[in-house]
Design goal:
The protein is of the alpha/beta class. It has 18 helices and 15 strands. The strands form 4 sheets. The chain has a 6-stranded mixed β-sheet with strand order 1-6-5-2-3-4, with helices on both faces. A 5-stranded mixed β-sheet has the order 9-15-14-11-12, covered by helices on one side. The protein has a two-stranded antiparallel ribbon with strand order 7-8. Strand 11 and strand 12 form a beta hairpin. Helix 12 runs antiparallel to helix 15 and helix 12 crosses helix 16. The termini are far apart. The relative contact order is 0.10.
């Protein structure tokens, strides 16, 4: 199976400008391609993870990836998929975020000996002369055509600032510069980037008389059509300090039955034959598939040791086995009252299983809280300090949230 055939079989490809040309370049390791990452936070998240996996796949096939860090475009903000304007970031924040991205990307992509490049578009965007840009680039963009782009149409009713309107021109200019500087002949990105990417291929054709290509990858959506990688408490990050390896593992362990095989195809490097066999599994067997998915992805992002710890911790919750790898909250002496007790609502808040005391009270009343497997429905329940001796206790809220709690 060729690289292209595998990308298609995994369901990764959404739209392409010229399938025959792209297929030939990708299969023969001739593509120098880029994917852009705007540094809007200090960590990459699950949405970026799919792009990183694609870069890794194509690099393994001999193609050269360019990770374009948006030090310049990050000053503006991409309106794609947004209902409001992005928060404006300072130069210092953007630089800090870029430094964090670089570290995380190196886990996936081999940047040694020119096998891949990491480039910052601030190098050319920040010094642009506005009048010169209007004459050299602006003349090649039709406003009528730009307004038909999905990323702008969605925003027209709510209001689209002129600042954001320029984003397509900036992204197109990036492709134009990368083509000239590094021979970058292809851009990949999420399916919501299609209009911006076409702008780049068109600019290269008009300015240089050359062909460049674009391909979008499927957005990571669940069976209900919503973007994956978000939880009630926010995004699922790749930084272990923002989303622990255990919580990362649990996110994938708890995906919907309808999504597990799709995620396996899109995100793991397991052979397709193996995944096709798992697609035949039903009922409780799907839990085994979810374990495999969670382990594979946690190993990719956090390494084998953390993946094993997360798996053992998750299994311990259901089997009552070794709890040493569970996420833990430590209590201090001052957390207990004069009688050496702590109330259950305070415990829930300290373990970050609820955001507030009122939420904790509600969870207890609804029968969603247990200690070491025993359901507690009394909102005035207290736990004595002696109960935390040895391995501590396992406090659980609902089916998926839990913490081991012990005393320092």
């Amino acid at each position: 199976m060729t690289v292209w055939d595998e990308l298609k079989a995994r369901g990764l490809i959404a739209q392409v400008t010229d399938e025959d040309e792209i297929k030939e370049m990708v299969n023969n390791g001739k593509a120098t391609f880029y994917i852009g990452f705007d540094p809007t936070a200090d960590s990459l998240h699950v949405g970026h993870f799919m792009a990183l996996c694609l870069m890794k796949r194509l690099q393994m096939a001999g193609n050269r990836p360019i990770a374009l860090l948006g030090g310049g475009t990050g000053m503006i903000g991409d309106p794609s998929g947004r209902t409001d304007m992005r928060q404006m970031l300072t130069k210092e924040t953007i630089q800090h975020n870029i430094d964090c991205f670089k570290q995380q990307m190196s886990r996936f992509i081999d940047f040694s000996d020119g096998k891949a490049l990491m480039v910052n578009n601030a190098d050319w965007l920040m010094n642009l002369n506005y009048v010169e840009l209007l004459r050299e680039v602006g003349a090649h963009f039709s406003v009528n055509r730009m307004l038909t782009a999905e990323c702008y149409k969605q925003r027209m009713e709510r209001g689209l600032s002129f600042l954001e309107f320029n984003y397509m021109i900036m992204q197109s200019y990036d492709f134009y510069m990368l083509y000239q500087k590094y021979g970058c002949n292809m851009q990949f990105g999420g399916d919501d980037q299609w209009s911006n990417m076409l702008g780049g291929t068109e600019l290269i054709r008009r300015k240089l008389g050359k062909d460049a290509y674009a391909m979008t990858i499927t957005l990571l959506l669940n069976s209900e059509g919503k973007k994956m990688g978000k939880t009630q408490s926010g995004a699922v990050w790749l930084d272990p300090n923002k989303t622990s390896p255990f919580d990362f593992y649990q996110y994938w362990r708890n995906v919907d039955d309808a999504d597990v095989i799709k995620c396996m195809r899109l995100l793991t490097f397991l052979p397709l034959e193996e995944i096709d066999e798992m697609a035949k599994w039903e009922g409780s067997e799907l839990n085994k598939a979810k374990e495999i998915l969670a382990y594979q992805l946690t190993e990719l992002v956090h390494g084998e040791e953390e993946a094993k710890k997360a798996q053992e911790g998750a299994r311990a919750l259901f089997s009552g086995a070794d709890t040493s790898h569970m996420p833990t909250t430590e209590l201090a002496e001052e957390d207990f009252d004069e009688e050496g007790k702590i109330d259950l609502i305070t415990l829930l808040v300290k373990a970050e299983l609820v955001p507030s005391r009122s939420e904790g009270r509600r969870a207890i009343q609804q029968g969603g809280v247990s200690i070491d497997g025993e359901k507690i429905t009394d909102i005035y329940h207290t736990v004595e300090k002696d109960a935390f001796a040895g391995e501590g206790i396992v406090l659980k809220r609902g089916k998926k949230k839990f913490k081991k709690i012990c005393v320092k």
